[in-house]
Amino acid sequence: xxxxxxxxxxxxxxxxxxxxxxxxxxxxxxxxxxxxxxxxxxxxxxxxxxxxxxxxxxxxxxxxxxxxxxxxxxxxxxxxxxxxxxxxxxxxxxxxxxxxxxxxxxxxxxxxxxxxxxxxxxxxxxxxxxxxxxxxxxxx
Length: 140
Known about the structure:
Blueprint: H1 2-31, H2 34-52, H3 75-82, H4 86-126, H5 130-139
Helix pairs in contact: 1-4, 2-4
């Protein structure tokens, strides 16, 4: 009966950790899903668009006249004059960045699993030394 109670207690205590691990795995799986990646790229594009639509024309008089800032300019219009393809490049870079995040998250999760296995092996290897450490503590 005690064994069943102890097993039940361990399961109850381990459930949040297992759930978190499942949640982590699901998040990583989603990060590697092309549809989710496209959604993330779209969100990044929308956020960048908000910033790029910032009007900078009102401070044109404080800029170097050689900069050519016009009264109705936005950050987007300034950047577009220098690089007509910057928005396409921004989207390509965002797509690559989101893909790298998915790959990196997967690798980190795999490494976390490996570190957990290593820690378990270390605990098992050090377990025989526990009685010695307890005796040493009693001497002090």
